[in-house]
Design a protein that fits this description.
It is a single chain. This protein is an alpha/beta fold. 38% of the residues lie in helices and 20% in strands. It has 32 helices and 29 strands. The strands form 5 sheets. It has an 8-stranded mixed sheet. The protein has an 8-stranded parallel sheet with strand order 28-27-26-25-24-23-22-29. A hairpin with a 6-residue loop joins β10 and β11 (264-268). The chain is globular and about 95 Å long.
Length: 780
């Protein structure tokens, strides 16, 4: 019998107490009673929450307010959520309840010999962490909380988090009665983790019950769970303990205790542990073996496969189990046999299934059928129409910024590049599954997740589909604008409700390839100039009208000579260059008499969109700029065609060539904004071919290289000095969270990413901005 009315110690609760202490609290109690090393603590029960609600007469207010809820109306949901949270945070906790919580906190501190012990304050909903419903991530967690005042403040915050818009919407869509779900709060001794991560006692990717997956990185587990860092990953045979697969990642960021003693802060691994630690294996063999044994023990005790969060304490070097919950996405009735056929670089995430169509000659590209897996040496622009039909793309060559990778991400197609020998290993007509998140091609139709009727996800993602308008509304607000990259105009309908502030890069090359199909100068020569203007303006206006009044940044054509030759009539007018990547492209092409008329047609198409269709949200961006002199010439041509730079018409340039960085102050006086093309800039700063799979694998092509980051900082500083917009549209920020953080902290004004990472990048940027704001407040 507990001596408290509203408090239960971990050793006093088990799985039968879920209605009292929630799923998380009950699991921690079970683990404690099983004799596992769990940080000690106690639960403020759901009865305390109900007492608080009743005593402050919030129960009637909540019920009356919820009766007005229209869950599919974003404004209604947000208004009601904010109103309820505000009322909870403003209401006074009953004196007897507050006294009991404080008494329990003091007694707990004495029991472990620490006054004002630092604790983690975690929500534990009474329907959370159950096998049939994953509420994980719906309520809040606060770390390194110390002192009675801070404890009470954060307990109240946890209670209020039961009424966030996302949590309300989740319960509505899952048919949970709002008043059947109460909230317990777990108060647990903080583990000052030097290493931490997540362990799955079944392989969540392959669904193999005989394997376990362990993710590990430095510092607190927040960095791993939130996706802030790419952790080391181990696939282990549960029967033998043998490591089947080991991936040691580049770990740049770690989350540790804040110097201010409350909360956490993000630091560079290099600054805390030294540069060598970034690329070093995080776990020792002994630590890994210990984790495997703990995972097996917990699975055996629960008699079900588990998702386990763990940490190794910095002070004692002891492994602690922070929580464990059932894996809700895998049925334990069948194991898939996986046969690996090829491996490469994961370039566009997703799972693709279909029949292999091995294209070794471009003249056979019309053989591609809907749902095929395109296997080829490397793609080129002529293949784009066929790629649109595919369920996946696999190439022998290339890196993560090659043509195949970029186009696949634009089209939302799973893609693996640099899969050496794939064209030989994958036979035409055989059925394969490509896991383009991990870069592996399997034989047959595999990786089918077997889930219960109510689909759920493994971690913090909700197990329901939020309508797109609601998703955009619930996205965090950021000072740094989040733009989206787009190539195919027809895809705007699919992505229009994502939470983006505009299009930061629309590539016209897709329109040339799919809608026009001919070289601009061939059209001039054959008297078809108006057709090009019409088709180009049609594609641009389709996007501009859909997102109006948000900005649409149209990048003028940037085909290289080898790509232009693939268009109809291109072989008649294009030279053959040995190195077209740094050849006749961008502004050097626009001012050449051999192409100037083609550029003028592009300008007329932009003018038509703005003047005839009234879409003034369209601005122009010029690619591959090398010299201020050529920029001045191009602006004169544009002005002659009615596109005069001014308050109503903005001109941006791509910052891809190092000369733009070195002369950033001069260029800033000629343009309205910069957009950093980090793919080409990295290539030219590092002297590393972006299409080289070898150099990609060796780490030469990496936007996080110090030389590249210095170039980025120089350009951002110059743009800010002159009050000009500075954006980035390469793959780096969406691929590397630490690079996005660096850019925001350096003062970039916007980040433009592919559609599949818009939501993630907005959340990431919001976190960085909030932390910057918090740090500025904390500074003396």
């Amino acid at each position: 019998m507990s001596k408290y009315r509203y408090i239960r110690l971990f050793e006093e609760v088990n799985k039968e107490d879920i209605p009292l202490v929630g799923g998380k609290g009950a699991n921690l109690g079970e683990l404690t009673q099983m004799g596992l090393d769990v940080p000690p603590g106690f639960c403020v029960t759901s009865e305390a929450y109900n007492y608080f609600i009743a005593h402050t007469q919030l129960d009637s207010i909540v019920k009356e307010t919820m009766e007005r809820l229209d869950v599919d109306n974003p404004n209604s949901l947000t208004t009601i959520s904010e109103s309820l949270q505000s009322k909870l945070n403003e209401s006074k906790i009953p004196e007897d309840l507050e006294a009991e919580i404080i008494a329990a906190y003091r007694t707990f501190g004495k029991s472990i010999g620490i006054e004002n012990v630092q604790v983690a304050v975690r929500s534990s909903a009474t329907a959370e962490d159950l096998p049939d419903a994953s509420f994980a991530g719906q309520q809040d967690t606060y770390l390194y909380i110390s002192g009675e005042k801070e404890l009470m403040k954060h307990i109240r915050k946890c209670w209020a988090s039961l009424w966030t818009a996302r949590a309300i919407y989740y319960r509505e869509k899952q048919d949970f009665d709002h008043f059947d779900v109460a909230l317990s709060v777990v108060v647990q001794k903080m583990v000052n983790s030097t290493k931490s991560g997540v362990m799955f006692t079944a392989n969540p990717i392959s669904q193999d019950l005989n394997e376990m997956m362990i993710n590990a990185s430095y510092g607190l587990g927040e960095a791993v769970v939130s996706g802030m860092v790419t952790p080391d990953e181990y696939i282990v045979n549960k029967k033998t303990g043998e490591i089947i697969e080991e991936t040691i990642s580049e770990k740049n960021i770690m989350v540790i205790k804040s110097n201010d003693q409350v909360g956490t802060e993000e630091l560079k691994v290099e600054d805390v542990l030294g540069k060598d630690a970034i690329y070093a294996e995080c776990l020792t063999k002994e630590e890994l073996d210990n984790l495997v044994q703990y995972g097996l023990k917990i699975e055996a005790l629960y008699k079900s496969i588990q998702d386990i969060e763990w940490g190794i304490d910095k002070d004692t070097n002891k492994l602690y189990i922070l929580q464990s919950r059932p894996i809700t996405t895998i049925k334990e009735d069948k194991k898939e046999e996986l046969i690996v056929l090829a491996k490469g670089l994961a370039a566009s995430p997703g799972i693709g299934r279909g029949i292999v169509n091995n294209i070794k000659d471009l003249k056979n590209i019309d053989q591609i059928k809907d749902g095929d897996i395109l296997v080829t040496g490397m793609t080129n622009p002529d293949m784009v129409p066929a790629m649109r039909k595919c369920a996946g793309v696999i190439t022998d060559e290339g890196g993560r910024t090659c043509h195949a990778a970029i186009v696949s991400r634009e089209l939302g197609i799973p893609c693996i590049v640099g899969a050496k020998g794939a064209t030989k290993a994958l036979k035409a007509g055989e059925f394969v599954t490509l896991d383009a998140t991990r870069g592996v091609v399997y034989k047959g139709d595999v990786l089918k997740k077997k889930v219960k009727e109510k689909k759920v996800e493994e971690h913090s993602s909700a197990s329901f589909t939020i309508n797109e308008e609601m998703k955009s509304l619930l996205a965090p607000i950021t000072a740094t604008k989040i733009y989206m990259n787009l190539g195919e105009p027809g895809l705007i309908e699919k992505y229009k409700d994502l939470p983006f502030d505009g299009i930061g890069l629309m590539r016209t090359e897709f329109i040339f390839t799919n809608m026009i199909g001919a070289h601009p100068m061939y059209l001039v020569k054959t008297g078809q100039s108006e057709m090009m203007i019409e088709k180009l303006s049609e594609g641009i206006s389709e996007v501009a009208s859909t997102i109006y009044p948000k900005q649409l940044t149209v990048r003028m054509s940037d085909f290289r000579t080898n790509e232009y030759r693939g268009l109809q009539g291109g072989d008649e007018v294009e030279p053959i260059e040995q190195n077209p990547m740094i050849g006749w492209r961008g502004l050097s092409r626009y001012i050449s008499k051999e192409y100037e008329e083609g550029f003028r047609l592009e300008c007329r198409a932009i003018k038509k969109v703005r003047d005839e269709y009234g879409l003034k949200n369209v601005i122009a961006m010029l690619p591959f700029v090398r010299k201020p002199e050529e920029l001045i010439q191009v602006k004169e041509i544009m002005a002659q065609e009615g596109l005069r730079q001014g308050i109503d018409f903005k001109i941006w340039i791509m910052a891809e060539v190092p000369s733009v960085v070195f002369m950033a102050d001069e260029f800033a006086q000629l343009v309205d904004g910069f957009s950093i093309g980090s793919n080409d800039l990295t290539q030219l700063v590092m002297g590393a071919d972006r299409d080289s799979g070898i150099l990609n694998n060796m780490g030469y092509f990496d936007e996080r290289n110090e030389a590249v980051k210095r170039a980025l900082k120089i350009l951002i500083d110059a743009a800010n000095r002159h009050g000009k917009t500075v954006s980035i549209c390469g793959q780096g920020p969406s691929q590397y969270p630490e690079l996005a953080q660096f850019l925001v902290e350096s003062g970039i004004t916007s980040i433009s990413v592919n559609p599949d990472t818009v939501e993630y990048t907005r959340r990431l940027v919001a976190q960085v901005e909030q932390r910057m704001l918090l740090n500025s407040i904390r500074r003396p």
